[in-house]
Fold:
Amino acid sequence: MNEGKPPLKVLFIYGTGCFGWSISLNLVSVLLNYIYLPPANAGMKNLIPDVAWLGFISIISVILFSGRVVDAIVDPLLSNLSDKSQNKLGRRIPLMRYAFIPLSIFSALMFFPLHRGQSTFNIYWLAGMQSVFYVFYGMYTIPFNALLADMGKDDRTKLNLSSAQSVGFIIGIVVASSCTAVVELITKAGWITDKLTAYQVSIAMLNLIGMSCLGVTAFLLDEKKYAAEAKSTEGVWQALKITMSNHNFRIFVLADATYFLSIAIIAAGLLYYMKSMLKLNESLGAAFMLALVVITMAFYVLVNWLGTKYSKKIMMIIAFSASAIVFSEIFFLGWFPFPPIYQAALLVLTFGVPNAFLQILPNTVIADIAHDASKKGSGNTEGMFFGMRAFFQKIGQTMGVTIFAMLITFGKDPGHDLGLRLSGIAGSVFCIIAALAYSRYKE
Structure:
C-alpha cells in the first residue's frame, strides 16, 4: 500500500543501488580504453591491435558502438516488461533482483581478456562481454530509474530521490577511480608485480562491493509501500510511440545524450590527461575525484532549493554552457604557467559547480515528462521514458568513447598528445550543442 513520501532510510537504500551500478559503469567508462590501449608510459601492453581504418576508426570504437545494436532491441523490451509487470513485489524490483549479480560479473569480465598480449581473440571477447553487460545493466537501471517517477509525487520528493541517486553515483565514481590507487598499493607492496593482474584484482574487488550495494536496493526497498500502484496496458510499439512522440522528451534526450557523449569523452581521457599531458601518477586520480565529489555535494543544497523556485530549463542551459568552458581547459593542460598538479585541480574545481546541477536536475525533468504524459492519458509508461532515456544515454556514452578512441589515433603519448587535446575541444563543443538543443524545451 502506498504510504506517501519516502523517509530518509528509503532515500539511503535507493541511493545505495545507484552507488553499486555507478562503480561498475565507471570502471568501464574510465578504464576500458586505458587497459586495452594504454599509453606508452603506462607499463602495460596493448591487448588489441592499435590500428585504425580510414586513419581514425579504431577497433575498440567499432566494438563499443556495435553493442548499441543489442540495446536498441533489449531496452524497449525491458522497459515495457517492467511497466506491464503484475508481480506481487511491484513493477520494478523483480527485474532488479534478476540483474544485480550478472551486472557486476560481466563488468569485471570485460577486463579479463583471453590473452594477456595483443590478440584478435581479445576483440571477440570484449565485444561479447560488453553486450551481455549492457543487457543486465539495462535490466537493473531501467526499473531503478523508473522508481523515481513512481515514488516522486511532487517536486520536493523527486529532488530528494534524485539527490540520493546523484550522491550514490558520484561516490561510485570516486570508488571506481580509486582502482588506480589500489593498483599502486598492490604493486608497491609487492603482492602482485604484473600491472595488468593488479588492475584485474582491483576491478574484481570493486565490482564485488558494487554487487553488494545493488542487492541492498533490490532486496530492502519496499516498492509496494512507496510507489504509485499502476501498470501499463500498452504493448511495446504503442508505448514507444507514446514516448517518442512527446516533443519535450525528444528535446530532452537529444540534449541529455549529447551531454553524456561529452562526459564520456572526458571520462575516457582522465587517466591519459594525468599520465601523458600532466605527467602525474595516475593514482592521484582518486584524490581529484574525491575533491570533485566534495565540491559537487557542497552545492546540492543550493540546487535542491533553486529547483523548486526557479526554471530548471534556464539552470540546465547555464550548466551545459559552464561545462563547455571547463572542458575547453583540457586543450591547454601542461601549457599553463603553473605546476601540473594545480592544473588538474583547476579542472576539478571549475567542473564541480555545473556538475551539481547536471547530476540532480535531469532526473527530475524526465520524471516531470513522464508524469505529464500520464496525466494527459498516455498510460503509465514511466519505465519506457526512463528506458529510452537510458538507451539514448548509452548511445551518447558509446559515441563519446568511440570519438575518444578515434581522436587518440592523432596522439596519446607524452610529447605526442594532439588527440588528447582535441578531446577537450570535442567535449566542449558537444556541451554547447546540448545547451542549444535544450533551449527548445517547452517548460
